[in-house]
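Fold it.
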Amino acid sequence: MSPDSLISPPPSHFLLPRELVWTATSCTPFHTSKKVARVIILGIDPGSVVTGFGLVEHQNRKNRLLQCGCIRPGNKLSFPQRLLYIYDHLLALVADAGPHEVALESVFYGVNTQSLIKLCQARGAIVTALANSDLPIFEYAPREVKRAVVGRGSASKEQVQFMIQRLLGKEAVDQGFDATDAVAIALCHAHQKVAVQGPGIRQNKLSEKIEALKKGGREQSRFDEKLKEIGVDARLRRRLNRRGR
């Protein structure tokens, strides 16, 4: 029986404008002869309508899904507001999850020029949020991601989804193709980059500083002042202060 015949219909997309779905799945082996430090990889599938994300933990030759979902600004927002929505939510995700590295799908040339322009603008908002968090960013072409996960650069989305489910469990595909593609991008980075790195990979600087402030107590006015001092912008400060109440 071929893998294609085992592919089930894609699950319906859940509307998750703000909720982040945490999952815990069984670990699967990652084939390398060298042990590496624990690394959390954030994979992102950029889009102006839907931006998929997936957080994968890689440690000691094993990969584990931590979190996946989609950022959906909604059609009622203007395009600039949608970019701001993506920026804000991604910045909050990075501050909460504390990834060490980010894997991003590179732009591919399509037939629709307007769609390509909007995609590039969405990627600009995403890259700006990541740069604001001082995270290293790695880019991978769609064919490279498919080859790393399925073994063929021409694999379909359904085949990628099938392999992700086999590797990381059903939770990795429950949020639809956008989230699954983001998880695949994170796994591609695990295959290509993490296996050759040594220990001592640090947490991203912004998340590290925020965690240190949380441990020092949350006296409201002082906490907000400290957040401002370490470079946290006003929107993220408001979000963090609301969570501390």
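The domain at 11-196 is CATH 3.30.420.10 (Nucleotidyltransferase; domain 5).
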